[in-house]
């Protein structure tokens, strides 16, 4: 449990650069402390812009000991343009000197028989790479939706009650309807949780999440990192927060 910090950048482009700079430092700090770094990626607009900004700084990172995971995935075949993996590969991973074994996509319908099986596989992979049954993650990046969702954990959705490390999600209000998501249990096991929001259309969600820890109301307000929780906002997304 950690009290949330707030970083506000003037606009989305500046925000992506600020988060990318912070990621370069956080990965170096994790590598200095424990010889490795594990980063959980997010889909979405500001999440993908951040990965592009990180690609511009790729030479500042030692990728040989970085593990890349996803906070959620749309249950679509490998290579589908709507998959978060596809966006992350185009924005960042394809340009990196990284061993494919260090990149951990969520299986799609081409690599699993059901979304339940895909989630169970991902949960096992996270546990196997973790310690004491919980994943070892240095930073989880989470884009925040206009309804204060994070990953594929939506307000009031039954998947919120599933305690597995990765959970199947049906009937997502954001298309596509079938997804796999890290659970709150996995997310809150991370050393640092970073929530990203840009644009005026996120201002209500940011205000809502700042005022409640109830995951049924605002999943984004209900997650904290063990050591650090940071809200990275642009000024439009932060506009309704008290100064
Ligand atoms: O699969 C997805 O769509 C995401 O992982 C989702 O959780 C996203 O990060 C938020 O909806 C914010 O997305 P935007 O930044 O595009 O609004």
From TrEMBL:
Q: Which Gene3D superfamilies match?
A: 3.40.50.1360
Q: Where is the Glucosamine/galactosamine-6-phosphate isomerase domain?
A: 10-231
Q: Give the InterPro entries listed for this entry.
A: 6-phosphogluconolactonase_DevB, 6PGL, Glc/Gal-6P_isomerase, NagB/RpiA_transferase-like
User: Mind listing the UniProt keywords for this protein, alphabetically?
Assistant: Hydrolase
Annotated EC: 3.1.1.31
Record-level GO BP terms: carbohydrate metabolic process; pentose-phosphate shunt
Q: In which pathway does it act?
A: Carbohydrate degradation; pentose phosphate pathway; D-ribulose 5-phosphate from D-glucose 6-phosphate (oxidative stage): step 2/3
Query: Which reaction does this enzyme catalyse, per its entry?
Result: 6-phospho-D-glucono-1,5-lactone + H2O = 6-phospho-D-gluconate + H(+)
GO terms (molecular function) for this protein are: 6-phosphogluconolactonase activity
Record bears the keyword Transcription regulation: no
Q: Which CDD domains match?
A: 6PGL (cd01400)
Any idea what job this protein has? Hydrolysis of 6-phosphogluconolactone to 6-phosphogluconate.
Name-wise, this protein is 6-phosphogluconolactonase
Higher taxonomy: Bacteria, Bacillati, Actinomycetota, Actinomycetes, Motilibacterales
